[in-house]
Structures are given as structure tokens and as C-alpha cells.
Amino acid sequence: MLTSRSLPALILTLAALPAGAVERDFKALANAIETRFNVKREEIPMMGLVKFIARSASSGNVNGLELANFEGLEFSENNARDFAAIVSKVLDDNWRPMVRVLSRKSDEYTSIWVRSEKGQLRMMIANLERNEANVIELKVDADQLVKWIRDPEHAGDRAARLADDHGDRDRDDK
To answer: Which CATH code is given to the segment(s) 7-143?
Structure first.
């Protein structure tokens, strides 16, 4: 089962962003969250390397990834409402909501927005949990996404082969 904690790992496995290419909408959303909730984005160690490896694992079909992690942003009904309002306000009319989930049981709000752009599908994922929030943007080749959805069991085969190759080298070195 895909959970909010496994979602960033899945996206990191699938995606990578060319150096310096940060989308305007992602920046605007991250900045709005920082301002409203008085939090700062956490630095993610070796994110550039992760993007490079992830881009290779997707055979270049995922053309962009940005991730902002905000620690210390507490979940509450009011914060969830404000968080959802910020996302809706910052993303323009070209973005369409695909998924919106508010779970009072697990104290979590998640929304996924999509936008079509020149054969690419941009996705903005905004998640608020008990002690943190995440904003993830990725761009994926629309045709490849359809293939991954139709055959999810094989979507990660290339990444698994890369991991196996790396493991074999480690064993040979010993």
C-alpha cells in the first residue's frame, strides 16, 4: 500500500530534475507555505545525486523533480484547511485537482494536482502530516506514465537492475 511516507521514496526512484531547473509554481507554493506557517525548508543531503540516479532509473522519461520538506508544521483542522487553501490559491487555472484526501484518523491531508504541458504531465503533490509537510513536483512523459500505470509490476524493473548491478560490484570487490 502506498502511504504518504513511501510516496516521496517512490517519486525519488522515478524522477530527476536537470540542474537549476526549478519550476515557478513549485517555488511559489513552497514560499507560500514558509510564509503562512513560519517554517523553513529542510536541506536534503545529496539531493543532486539522488536526482541524477533517479533520472537514470526512469530512462529519462521523468524530466523533473523538486522536493521541499518542512519539519515542525503541526497537523490541525485549521492548518489542514489553510494548507489546502494555499495550494488551491497558488496553482493557477491550468492545474487540475486529481486527488484530495483529508484523514482525521491519521491526521493527514494530501492533494495531487496535474497539468498537461507539451506531451509532459506535471504533478504537484502537497502533503501535510502530524509533524511535517512535503511538496513534490515532477514532470513525466505522459505516454510513459500510461505505460507505468498499465503495468505497475514492471515500472521499477530498470531501477532494480541498477541496484542489482551495484550489489554485484560490491560483492566482487570483497
So the answer is: 3.30.2030
CA 165 to each of CA 28, 43, 158, 161, 172: distance values in angstroms, whole numbers, following the listed order: 39, 29, 11, 6, 11
For residue 51, what pLDDT is reported? 76
Give the list of residues 6+ apart from residue 19 with CB closer than 8 angstroms, or none.
48
Q: Given the C-alpha cell 486529481, which residue does it identify?
A: 98
Q: What is the mean pLDDT of the chain?
A: 78
Q: Which three cell numbers stand for residue 95?
A: 492545474
Cell of residue 72, nine digits: 515542525
For the chain, the C-alpha Rg in angstroms (whole number) is 17
Report if pTM > 0.90: no
Separation of alpha carbons 147 and 131, rounded Å: 35
Q: Could you give the residue ranges of the DSSP H alpha helices within the chain? A: 7-14, 24-37, 47-57, 77-90, 142-150, 157-173
**Domain map (residue ranges) of the chain:** 7-143
Neighbours of 93 (CB within 10 A): 6
**Cβ proximity of 112 and 98 under 8 Å:** yes
